[in-house]
Specification:
The protein is of the alpha+beta class. It is built from three helices and six strands; from the N terminus they run E-E-H-H-E-E-E-E-H.
Length: about 150
């Protein structure tokens, strides 16, 4: 069952540190994926679910696949806004649309989609997203699965 979603994106604010940049002083491309990961993690936390607690419930969210498109570089000390918007909720996965923008000029730096699978912590086998999590995402404006 698949539900298409179109809710307001969650926004996470972060700053570019020296460790995020390459020899040219530009954010190294893979670090945009780290910024996106942090936004998804903070989205879950904002809904009341810490990933460290979910492991105790035999539940992990793992990245199944991702795509990214780079538009402009971020540089040392830039402040960034990173969005995480669930656009699809399936039985055992979530698809996020994400963007990274520079705060000072609202320039779109990077955008992409990330498919996150729900798996059992012990076996890494797929499992259904628990109803309590579905309800939390549903409370964020998402339609129930199958609608």
């Amino acid at each position: 069952m698949r539900a298409q979603c179109d809710t307001e994106p969650f926004t996470h604010r972060c700053r570019v540190y020296y460790e995020d940049t390459d020899a040219g002083g530009i954010v190294y491309y893979v670090n945009y994926l780290k910024f996106m990961e942090r936004a998804r993690t903070e989205r879950l936390r904002g809904l009341g679910f810490a990933q460290s607690q979910l492991v105790g419930q035999d539940l992990l969210f793992v990245v199944h696949s991702c795509e990214a498109r780079y538009h402009a570089p971020a540089r040392l000390d830039d402040e960034l806004l990173v969005t995480a918007q669930v656009i699809e909720l399936n039985r055992a996965s979530l698809r996020f649309r994400q963007q990274v923008r520079r705060v000072s000029d609202d320039q779109l730096l990077c955008e992409g989609q990330v498919l996150v699978a729900c798996v059992r912590a012990e076996s890494l086998k797929p499992r259904a997203i628990p109803e309590v999590l579905r309800a939390a995402f549903g409370g964020a404006g998402l339609p129930p699965a199958g609608e």
